[in-house]
Write a structure and sequence with these properties.
heterotrimer, A alpha+beta, B alpha/beta, C alpha+beta, A: alpha+beta, Alpha-Beta Plaits, 8 strands, B: FAD/NAD(P)-binding domain, Enolase-like, domain 1, 3 domains, 12 helices
Chain lengths: 160, 463, 611
């Protein structure tokens, strides 16, 4: 098994500490709009969770890159943007069907979660262990149950 | 087993790498291409000065040697005999093949106007084109003013080139024959945002105008006469008036063509051992009947990977390509997906001119069938939404009650994306039935490991 | 990217002029940010005698230097203006995400002046600042306004602070809501916003907050995080929210019930933190950067009577947040309502309509007392305003927000209402503002805290029940209370100026832990003594504003009910507030004259001589 970022939506309180942490790593300032992990706050469904790159098997971003600027980090298995190679064409951004590959305005380069080289700052920052970096059999396995919960709460609300 | 691959773009190199992933080097591969293997997508960034010429390359001799590929660069394939399983090359030699992949790409259309063949009038399509334009610009430097360029054609390629020229601080005037910018990528209001954005950056745009003639001037510059009566002085005229697939090779060969070479969902032509991919192929379309030419990088990659797997003897079927594009319009992002121009479909739009924000979701039945986004590059929230819409379309997710929600709340895509389970489906999806592998060529052999990050170290030190 | 403290945005609604200014560095030095800095601007720019609902009033939104940073609970902004309820300076604090977003947009403060000729909203997206037509939102509730603005502007990350119908109708205790459920709640700041025809301030910021000394800053942040992680106070906030307090106030006979006619509520268990958690809460919710998450996301009991919870379709909400302790008390015990679903629903309505639930509940409680005593008759109300009536609670919240029927009277607050009906004694508050949920007869310290708070009765400027019930003090005697309140007011004020949430203090991260954060974020040394002095300076400045506004020592008082009428039974039976013993001590500790005026020496010491 590989180490991955596992999300536990029921523990998330929507505090944005992960966004603060990630944006700090990206920019050296606290700028949540620059975070590569982004918290969804679904008030009406009473559910929150951060979403970031799942390091998915298909690696849509890596495949779409016209200049092979996304590589696999041998240490973590993360798909990583090799900055000097990136031309900033945004193709990885539209190829990623999870909405987790960005282009940072100040550099004009693609940016995505690279697991901070094996010590993800978001997991360090999370006060409720809603972000866990550890062994996991399947990337994004939490997505299905979380989606079902949001859907269930939404449908229930429609009846109210 | 001998695979012959004609072309050096993304379809070709991805096919090579995929074949090797499956066969571990047990077959022979010959790659024929009249240009070095490079990324056409990268050329405008070379023009912009963001990267050097070397960084446009997508493979070098060592790379092909490692992959055990025999290369015939600088040679053009001139004929193919699908029944005799041979390819004729420009030097008169012949290559026998067991499997053939035709990935010859496309070429720019040259408008038939007087002066289109003058020096300094050129498309920006090849390595040679790019080098010529850069040389021309350099030669103007003693004049002490930025080059004046007229860009003819404001489609996807034209706008990328425009962006490069703006980064160079060239003085650019845009001429587009249709009444809007990016007519095959954005609808009228979305294009209006782009036009206002460019106007605010002093980029002159002439829409509904064509170039009548280009006249050489005594000082070496050109006068570009437009149909609206104006004449523009230019040092350079960049032609971006559309492309056509490179079908010369297959004419009369018996390989079936429509708008391009017709392929099935294994990328096979009407001759099962002859494959085609990339801009020259007309293949399956995601969530739709029929076939189409989607001359975009991601489709070329998919085609190359699917063709490569099948050439290596593994049956992989392509679910089809999704039309999508994203372009930086001088700092404003524009993106579109699928059938955004479906006039009969229901839509939900957001139009916020002061913020240069536009969004259109297009619904067919119970699904999102198309989308347009315009917004400033500094709001990553839009990029999340762009990706999630792509995910909903990629999975053809049925929206159920979320369709009405999205029609009422087109700004809130995340909720519908999560609740409809699109992500869970995507996690379980791979095109080739196995995890994708990293490409084996990185320009300048840049190390893919994580560099030390001082901010990160401070954060995780915990005092 | 911005410096730790930098720019303010000035918006003149009358002319439509918008400008940015550098924040005065000397005022930053003296007041740090937030409440104090805004008060300094208000004192410099506003004649304290103006009608708070006139265009002359200023409405200031101010963040602190820690707002938008990962310092736990660095979420806060302060609304500073002359209060519509109190005619005194008010400083109304809120969390959520709006304050940080303002800083990310590049502004530490917004000063709003004048009155727009028609309803507008202010749209801020980094350097793009624009007044836009709010016609589509005028009359809309808070949730619909926020959703509508996101829809119109097409920005998913937009953060909205807005008023509801309450603010539009100039309800004197209307609040400014942000992020749908967070409130700058007290003193009628929403009415001031409404009087300016300003429906909302919608913000999107894509910049960041910079830190002068990152290593020292993160070290201080992690120290706070570690101290809070296993602290029992933090765990109680997380587990039970603020409503856990109800067990304590009930036990000490300090849970004001039926407009302070009793000190204990027979149905208090229905409203407790445990009951809410076990029966109605579906999730914890945090404000920005908050590591406590005291917010309760609640759902009504699915079996709650429909007629009760769904009376008015125009305001039907399917889910909401709260109640906090104060709201559970005001809408519950103070009105004698023990039906938790009705209280939750009334809380949601207050949030969505933009009303301060404390003053709403307390003013209704006063109206109920008038009704029960026959002062107001059935011909004046659409339904009996009996203590305990859930129907009356829910209906009157709406009627107040829209100023319908008797709601128009309640909307003036219980002081004005009591005076109008010639029974001013039903007003339970100070300086026009209704008390929060502590009976000072059970906690003497709260008596002097309420009487001297610059914005009228408030529990957030000095909170004494903790120390009074710890065994260190007798809650029924005045000894030591004034001294303690002075210290606590100074510390709390300093805390407010930093831009962090008060609750970290009770969660293991006292003011001492904020000093190194403040120092590191600005790169300027800052000790806890510096902070306390800043707090004292701020409090004195506010006091000067109020004195110029015409307030006197006579306004530092409590209702006769607290001073003369003891409870007949319960743990606090027989006790009245001995304010006469505490107030002189308080003035002395403050360095003020017997008339409650800061002495020249004190002002000189604080650098306020010129104000």
């Amino acid at each position: 098994m590989t180490r991955m970022l596992d999300i536990v939506p029921d523990r998330c309180t929507g505090c944005m500490q992960c966004e603060l942490a990630c944006s700090w790593v990206q920019t050296g300032s606290f700028a949540p709009s620059r975070s590569l992990i982004r918290v969804s706050v679904f008030d009406e469904e009473a559910s929150y969770a951060p979403i970031t790159c799942l390091q998915c098997d298909e690696a849509w971003c890596m495949n779409a890159c016209p200049v092979n600027a996304i590589a696999v980090d041998p240490a973590t298995g993360a798909k990583r943007v090799v900055d000097p190679l990136c031309i900033g064409c945004h193709l990885c951004t539209i190829a990623c069907p999870f909405g987790t590959v960005f282009t940072l305005p100040q550099s004009g380069k693609a940016a995505k979660c690279d697991l901070c080289g094996g010590q993800p700052a978001c997991a360090t920052a999370c006060p409720t262990q809603a972000i866990v970096y550890g062994e996991s059999p399947q990337a994004g396995r939490w997505f299905a149950s979380w989606g079902a919960k949001v859907d269930r709460n939404f449908v229930a609300a429609g009846d109210a | 087993m001998h695979h012959v691959i004609i072309g050096g773009g993304p379809a070709a190199t991805n096919a090579v790498e995929t074949i090797r992933q499956f066969d571990g080097g047990r077959s022979d591969i010959t790659l024929v291409c009249d240009e070095p293997a490079h990324s056409r997508m990268a050329l405008p960034y070379w023009l912009a000065g963001d990267i050097g010429e070397g960084q446009t390359h997508t493979g070098d001799a060592a790379y092909f040697a490692r992959l055990k590929v025999a290369t015939r660069f600088g040679v053009r394939a001139t004929a193919v005999d699908p029944q005799g399983k041979t390819v004729t090359l420009g030097d008169g030699s012949h290559l026998a093949f067991d499997n053939l992949l035709i990935a010859t790409g496309s070429s720019p259309l040259r408008p038939s106007i007087p002066g289109a063949d003058l020096p300094g009038v050129t498309p920006l399509w090849s390595l040679a084109d790019t080098e010529r334009v850069l040389q021309c610009a350099a030669s103007l430097q003693p004049a002490g003013r930025p080059p004046r360029a007229v860009l003819v054609g404001a489609g996807f390629i034209g706008i990328i080139v425009l962006n490069a020229m703006l980064k160079r601080r060239w003085q650019v005037t845009v001429v587009e024959r249709e009444s809007q910018l990016l007519p095959r990528m954005l609808d009228v209001p979305a294009a209006g945002h782009a036009r206002r954005w460019l106007a605010a950056r002093n980029v002159a745009v002439h829409c509904s105008a064509t170039v009548q003639r280009i006249r050489p001037q005594a000082d070496g510059t050109k006068a570009v006469d437009l149909s609206d009566g104006q004449s523009l002085a230019a040092d350079l005229v960049i032609l971006a008036t559309g492309i056509r697939p490179n079908l010369d090779l297959v004419r009369g060969s018996g390989i079936a063509t429509g708008e391009a070479i017709l392929v099935n969902d294994r990328m096979q032509t009407n001759f099962p051992h002859v494959y085609a991919g990339g801009d020259v192929a007309q293949g399956p379309v995601l969530s739709a009947a029929g076939s189409a030419v989607h001359p975009i990088q991601p489709t070329a990659v998919d085609h190359g990977r699917v063709a490569g797997a099948n050439m290596a003897g593994h049956e992989v079927r392509y679910p089809g390509s999704l039309a999508m594009n994203i372009v930086d319009i001088g700092g404003l992002q524009g993106a579109s997906f699928g059938r955004w121009d479906d006039a009969a479909a229901e839509t939900a739009t957001i139009d916020h001119p002061a913020g240069f924000i536009y969004r259109k979701l297009v619904f067919r039945d119970d699904r999102i069938s198309g989308a347009i986004f315009v917004g400033r590059a500094d709001d990553l929230g839009m990029l999340t939404d762009i990706g999630m819409v792509k995910g909903l379309m990629q999975t053809a997710t049925r929206l159920g009650p979320w369709r009405k929600y999205l029609q009422d709340h087109p700004h809130d895509i995340r909720r519908a994306y999560v609740a409809t389970g699109a992500a869970a489906k995507l996690v379980a999806t791979t095109l080739l039935g196995r995890p994708a592998q990293a490409r084996q060529f990185h320009s300048g052999s840049a190390a893919p490991t994580t560099a030390a990050n001082a901010a990160h170290a401070v954060f995780v030190a915990k005092g | 990217m911005q410096r730790p403290m930098g720019r303010l945005l000035r918006v003149d609604l009358t002319s439509g002029r918008i400008a940015t200014e550098d924040i005065r560095p000397d005022w930053q030095r003296d007041y740090l940010g937030g409440r104090g800095l805004a008060a300094r601007y208000l004192c410099a720019e506003l004649d304290p005698r103006v009608d708070p609902l006139s265009p002359a009033n200023r409405l200031i939104f101010a963040t602190g230097p820690l707002t938008g940073t990962p310092v736990p609970c660095g979420a806060r902004y302060m609304v500073v203006t002359k209060g519509a309820l109190t005619h005194a300076i008010t400083t109304s604090n809120s969390g959520g995400h709006w304050g940080p977003e303002l800083r990310f947009a590049g502004y530490d403060m917004v000063i709003v002046e004048g009155r727009a000729p028609k309803p507008v909203y202010l749209y801020i997206c980094n350097d793009h600042v624009e007044l836009r037509d709010a016609k589509a939102y005028w009359g809309q509730a808070v949730g619909a306004t926020e959703d509508g603005l996101r829809r119109e502007l097409g920005i998913p990350g937009l953060r909205v602070a807005c008023i509801g119908p309450g603010g539009e109708k100039l309800v004197r205790f209307a609040c400014i809501m942000n992020d749908k459920h967070r409130a700058a709640g007290r003193s009628g700041v929403g009415a001031v916003m409404g009087s300016k025809n300003l429906k909302a301030i919608a913000v999107r910021g894509t910049g960041g907050v910079e830190v002068a000394e990152p290593a020292a800053f993160m070290k201080a942040v992690w120290a706070m995080r570690a101290a809070m992680q296993d602290h029992p106070g933090r765990m109680a906030f997380t587990e039970l929210g603020t409503a856990a307090t109800i067990d304590m106030t009930q036990a000490f006979g300090g849970l004001p019930t039926r407009n302070f006619l009793a000190g204990q509520f027979e149905h208090y268990e229905n409203l407790s933190g445990t009951t809410i958690r076990e029966t109605r809460m579906v999730a914890n919710k945090a404000c920005f950067a908050c590591t406590i998450a005291c917010g309760r996301v609640t759902r009504l009991d699915p079996h709650a009577p429909r007629h009760l919870v769904n009376m008015h379709p125009r305001n039907w909400k399917r889910a909401g947040e709260g109640p906090e302790y104060e709201n559970a008390w005001a809408l519950g015990a103070d009105c004698g309502v023990g039906d938790l679903d009705a209280v939750i629903r009334a809380n949601w309505l207050c949030n969505d309509l933009g009303l301060d639930p404390i003053s709403m509940g307390a003013s209704l409680a006063a109206a109920m007392e008038l009704y029960e005593r026959g002062v107001i008759g059935d011909d004046q109300v659409e339904m009996p305003l009996r203590f305990g009536s859930a129907e009356a609670l829910l209906r009157m919240v709406e009627a107040t927000a829209y100023r319908e029927g008797f709601g128009d009277e309640i909307a003036e607050g219980s002081k004005r209402m009591g005076e109008k009906f010639r029974h001013p004694e039903v007003f339970m508050g100070v300086k026009g503002q209704e008390f929060p949920a502590y009976d000072p007869r059970a906690f003497q310290g709260m008596g002097v805290a309420f009487a001297t708070c610059n914005r009228g009765a408030c529990h957030l400027r000095a909170w004494t029940p903790g120390v009074e019930t710890s065994g260190a003090m007798d809650p029924h005697t005045p000894a030591g209370k004034s001294e303690w309140v002075v210290i606590e007011q100074n510390r709390t004020t300093a805390h407010d100026n930093t831009g962090t949430c008060m609750f970290i203090g009770g969660s293991g991260a006292p003011l001492e832990s904020l000093a190194p954060c403040t120092a590191a974020v600005r790169g300027i040394p800052c000790s806890v003594d510096d902070l306390v002095r800043i707090g004292e300076r701020t409090g004195n400045l506010e006091r000067l504003f109020n004195l110029k506004a015409g307030l006197t020592r006579a306004d530092d008082t409590l209702p006769q009910r607290l001073l003369q009428d003891a409870h007949q039974s319960g743990p606090s039976a027989g006790v009245v507030v001995n304010l006469d013993a505490m107030l002189p001590v308080y003035y002395r500790e403050r360095g003020w004259s017997e008339a409650g005026v800061p002495t020249r020496e004190k002002l000189a010491e604080l650098g306020l001589a010129s104000v």
